[in-house]
Sequence to fold (426 residues):
Amino acid sequence: MAKIKVVHYINQFYGGIGGEEKADYKPEVIEGVKGPGMAFKAAFKDEAEIVATIICGDSYFNENMDEAKAAIFEMIKKYEPDLFIAGPAFNAGRYGVAAGAVTEMVQTELGIPALTGMYEENPGADMYKKGVYMVATKNSAVGMKDAVAKMAPLALKLARGEEIGSPEEEGYLERGIRKNYFAEKRGSERAVDMLVKKLAGEEYKTEYSMPTFDRVEPNPPIKDMANAKIAIVTSGGIVPKGNPDHIESSSASKYGKYDIEGIDNLTEETHETAHGGHDPVYANNDPDRVIPVDVLRDMEKEGKIGELHRYYYSTVGNGTAVANAKKFAEAISAELVADGVDAVILTST
Amino acid sequence: MVKEIERAGLPVVHMCTVTPISLTVGANRIVPAIAIPHPLGNPALEFDEEKALRRKLVEKALRALQTEVSEQTVFED
Fold:
């Protein structure tokens, strides 16, 4: 059998182009293997060959999704691959979104097997895991070896058209698909077994897990904006110069509450961003580009809004655990409600 | 975060660049922003133009907060 032809997608960082300063790098295709492709190459042995690698900047992809996808599609198609792999993206949010989007596009539009890999809390995971095979990885590149060890065999199986086992067996994220199989025991017996285990406090595994829908109904709109108290919350990491609370540049473990009384405008002298993972220059030069204190202050003076709340709240939304973000926001909301805030503007980078 | 604020009873507008992420995390009122590292600004513009751009985005966000919505809504224009 001929070697399976593979095209691999990676971001500007893994492509060796550069870090955040190169995140707006437009899609490029190179012949052969690059970066993490080396590990896949080793794992594929003689069975498959990475014929081309697509490199694209994470910000470019996310800010120009349609153009980026179209350009990347043409690049991939030219190589007539048998298989497509993207990532692994670990917990890099923009990379995860790009990897998921391209994998889904290739699978649907080229009709070839495709897979990607990322950490389960990567925003790209929730967006694309139902449509594509997505191997669960660790949250950082420390997990590269482990990720490739799971992705490479699954990729080969997909390319050979072999039967794919359950998410637990193969290591991919659940896609919410049920598959019929012949069980040894009938349903009533299995249900009773499960119930007995549950009553005994033992671990049991449901055969039909309920989907977790966590949606919150929108609150009613503000009726009287001219008398409303508006608060700013951000995951863009804007902090007073020097980052007094030492909010981490990624995987933040805390948030800050900062007084902006008497401040009409944030400047590079007074404030900066603590956010890592994207180029901080624009936010550092003018933090109003992330939280619009200047404009809201103007509108307060003009009577367009009642009041800009005296404090703003800030954390860094870069690889931050969902459980932490939830905890921060619960605490922040409780204070905002107690302070009589009517509505919130939340900005994200 | 946006969902927890909404859950606490406060109407909230999410201003962000990658709106698909915002939809996935469950924001109800979404205003698309300019770019990931500078959501409410554009360093290519002169200062006054840039501030006018920011003002327009904030006005849109305030409009979103004054609009009744029954489901996730992206306020395009």
Remarks:
- Chain B has a mean pLDDT of 95.
- Chain B touches chain A through 52 residues (CB under 8 Å).
- The first helix of chain B runs from residue 2 to 7.
